[in-house]
Amino acid sequence: MLKPLHNYVLLERIEENNKTASGIIIPDNAKEKPSRGKVIAVGEGVFDDEARVPMTVKAGDTVLFAKWASSANEIKLDGKDFILIKETDILGIL
Fold first, then answer.
1. Could you tell me which residues come within 8 angstroms of residue 60 by beta carbon, excluding any fewer than 6 positions away?
2. What is the pLDDT along the chain (94 residues), one digit of tens a residue?
3. Measured between alpha carbons, how far is 70 from 3 in angstroms, rounded to an integer?
4. Contact assessment for residue 45 and residue 57, using Cβ atoms and an 8 Å cutoff
5. Residue 46 CB partners (closer than 8 Å, separation 6+)
6. Which residues contact 80 (CB under 8 A, 6 or more apart)?
7. Of 44, 52, 74, 80, which residue is 20 to 30 A from 1 by alpha carbon distance?
């Protein structure tokens, strides 16, 4: 498995429900990419002056991240899709 460096976080997308509240099925090409993910691995943090700033998130957390994050890189490992993103683009822990 990939070990992120510095303040990067490896996420696996959590798929959203493909039905509306009224039961209408949303086709794949009309769905927005979900902005929730499960943290798979985290880096060790970045250095701020003299000390390392620890990461806030940890493996196993479910997080909400910015849909159009500038640091997001989609990657494929062992046939699965993942996102490598900076911790600053994570909006919160669910």
1. 38, 39
2. 799 999 999 999 887 666 666 767 666 555 566 689 999 999 998 888 888 888 999 999 999 998 777 778 899 998 999 999 999 999 999 9
3. 20
4. no
5. 6, 7, 52, 53
6. 12
7. 52
Q: Which two tokens stand for residue 70?
A: 């500038």
Q: 73: which residues sit within 8 A by CB, 6+ positions away?
A: 83, 84, 85
Closest CA to 87 of 6, 3, 2, 1: 6
pLDDT at 44: 92
Token readout for 35 is 């902005």
* Residues recorded for the chain: 94
